[in-house]
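Try it yourself: sequence plus 2-acetamido-2-deoxy-beta-D-glucopyranose, in.
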Amino acid sequence: MKTTIAVAFTTVLVALGASASPAVHRDHGKRHALTGPNGEPYVPGKWFDRFFMIIAENMDFWPVESQSTFANLWKQAPGGRLLANYYAVEHPSQPNYFDHIAATTFGWNSDSVVNITGSESFSIVDLLEEKGISWGGYAEDYPITQGCYVPYAPENPDGTQVPHSYVRKHFPFISFETIYTNETRCNKLYNADMFWKHLEEGKLPQFVYFAPNLLNDGHDTNASYFANYVQKTWIDTFYHNDYFNTRALNYLSLDESGNTTGFNTVPGDNNNHIYAAIWGDALTNRDTYDKYDFARYNHSSITATLEMNWWGKTGLLGRNDTYAPVFALPYDGAN
Ligand SMILES: *[C@@H]1O[C@H](CO)[C@@H](O)[C@H](O)[C@H]1NC(C)=O
Ligand SMILES: *[C@@H]1O[C@H](CO)[C@@H](O)[C@H](O)[C@H]1NC(C)=O
Ligand SMILES: *[C@@H]1O[C@H](CO)[C@@H](O)[C@H](O)[C@H]1NC(C)=O
Ligand SMILES: *[C@@H]1O[C@H](CO)[C@@H](O)[C@H](O)[C@H]1NC(C)=O
Ligand SMILES: *[C@@H]1O[C@H](CO)[C@@H](O)[C@H](O)[C@H]1NC(C)=O
Ligand SMILES: *[C@@H]1O[C@H](CO)[C@@H](O)[C@H](O)[C@H]1NC(C)=O
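Structure, out:
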């Protein structure tokens, strides 16, 4: 199944060749070139020019899907689709976040501070940088406006951790040597206020990674709190803002399930099933069946999808991005 899809996509890509024209954005009849925060021109992808991802914390599939905000997201967002068979890859949090950008957990199974160094620190960021594709990581309550903040979490004057705030384990970039040793790359990590500023200015990067704080992501709260946050903060933007609806693919999911009992020990059940929705005009729903996708995805499908979109093949990181299925995008010429 995966091989067939990969071959079909590759054939299509070869047949069409690489697009040379810069990405443009139709806005009230005007056309203007899209750029990232530093004026970087958008590099057009095959299906989308922008990929947005936002990550919540530690909840099982049903508690999330049973919130109307999330049941409606895949049903009502333009191009919405439920990835009904999506699994996180590890417990606890941190290795799942590594997998988001590196297609591997590095065998890590802890939340403690670690630096991923040397050739291991090769990630999607290196691929994006090489091709001139703008990217940015935005985190709520990130203690600085822009740059690399390496501590585990902000601290009060008495040395205790500021509660419900930013934590490093949910912001993978900061652990990668090719990023934290490079000022140019550090400057692509921002406090979330900058997300809203860049959105307003029409200067969001092509790859956006958004990490809510420990309250909003459900970590210190629950699914209804997370739903309320998304409903109030995001839904209108998701459904109506051009950036989420023009040559766009968007993704909302969790790092891992809430139930960690029996992980990798209960036969046939790796106990990490999580809610994942994708939407955007990169997805064309041809019929209602396309509202569900039962392919077995995991976090490595993110890098695989980005690679297929901008490079026409997967496995460029040489890890599980080689095997993870690409999120099903429309075939050219189908229908
Ligand atoms: C890919 O995932 C499997 C678990 O299914 C893991 O054993 C393997 O180490 C991963 N590969 C890499 C390169 O991370
Ligand atoms: C990781 O790298 C940072 C920045 O160089 C350094 O301050 C920190 O001590 C390192 N942490 C570990 C656990 O190696
Ligand atoms: C830092 O990153 C920038 C942007 O990718 C790159 O051009 C530059 O070569 C890097 N610097 C070092 C010392 O690796
Ligand atoms: C969810 O969390 C919020 C904030 O912590 C709390 O007020 C509310 O009672 C919780 N709801 C449930 C159903 O546990
Ligand atoms: C957690 O997962 C285990 C293993 O699949 C299962 O036996 C148990 O019922 C689950 N607990 C809850 C609360 O869903
Ligand atoms: C992710 O899915 C791919 C394809 O099924 C698989 O090869 C890989 O082992 C999975 N990753 C993990 C960490 O299980």
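One thing you can check immediately is this: The two ends are 20 Å apart (CA to CA).
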